[in-house]
Amino acid sequence: MESEYLFLYDIFKVIYSPVKAFREVLENPRYVGPVLIIIISLFLTMGTNYVSVSKHYVETITPTSPRDAWTNMTDPSLMWITNASVGSVAGVSNANSDLLAGNYSVGAIVTNASEVWLKTNATSIGTINCSNSGFRTFYYKLMYVGFNQTQAPQNPQSASLRMFSYNNESRYFEFDLLSNSQRYLNTSQAWIDANLILSDWKEINVSAADWSNITGFEFVLVFPQTGQLFLYLNDLHFGGKYELLTDAVGFSYWLSSTLVGSAFDIFLRWLIFAGLLWLTVKVFKSEGGSPFRTLLIVVGYAFAIAFVYVPIDILSVSQLPLLYFPDKVIFPLTGRELAASSLATSNIYATYWTSTVPYNIFIGVWYASHVWTIGLFSIALKILQNFSWKKAVLISAMAYIMALVIRAIIPL
Known about the structure:
The protein is α+β, with helices and mostly antiparallel strands.
């Protein structure tokens, strides 16, 4: 009966006495040991993934789908009011925008005026909680065009954004968009992609406006001379509220997809490592090569080192700081955002993780695990094929590096 469970000793013996362990394994190669190691390695890997994902927070926004729901309207009169005197629907139009492919900006055009404004209808956006526990950032894309009576371009002398409370326009907060024109208001005929952190607002609290009850907003631009004025808005949404990535995508979805992905990765690496080790042995020794089954079992036992380095990984990752990802980085809407998403993600990791001691321990252990694995393969080949140490290390290193390259190019 005891002999039936000797493979359990071999599993741990690979870690502290690999020469003896591989001699015993090769005397009676069985799949039960590697399969058990692979299963345990999978659950350890899932532990690392869970600790890592618990450090990732993503921004939640409203409206959520589509993100530009407040401006991509079939009938803009249901959402917007303006002082525009021209246009097919109450002076408000869906002007084709080159900013969001396939979408449209809400726009207003006024003539013989020095002011242009756009604001939401009462109840059109519902009630948004912008208190400390709610959405703390307001995002918008804005473009204006201003001409005086002689058709000379002009810039606004004042520009403001108001947030209304309780569907009452006398209860509002106001922000001066000219307080930093490069950040909040671009030059004429150029889109500005801006965000306002609500705690930065220069507030005007009229009749007890309440951040926890925001029911509408208004953009107002005033120009020094009368003329023809244009105002376009797009991609309006509230954000600045963060939640765990697993909550954002759904924990069950994350668990199932990560489990399947990790299992596929581990079994694929097992087969690739064994296959390339077998082929490399064939190249160096055309006769008397080891059966693929034997090398598959040997490679499976080498995965036992995960019992050592993965707990260290878990401990290291648990000490890393939290990461906060903007919505457009995780869920890019436009081609421009998609192009910038990868760079933005890399910058976040570089800023908050890569310079820390726990992260560098994690990377060091990762490199050490590769060297350790090559060492175990070398020991196995030395015993199995009676290669010299130099030849065994060379074959193991070549097979392992080729396996890493092949695995990198195979999509998960």
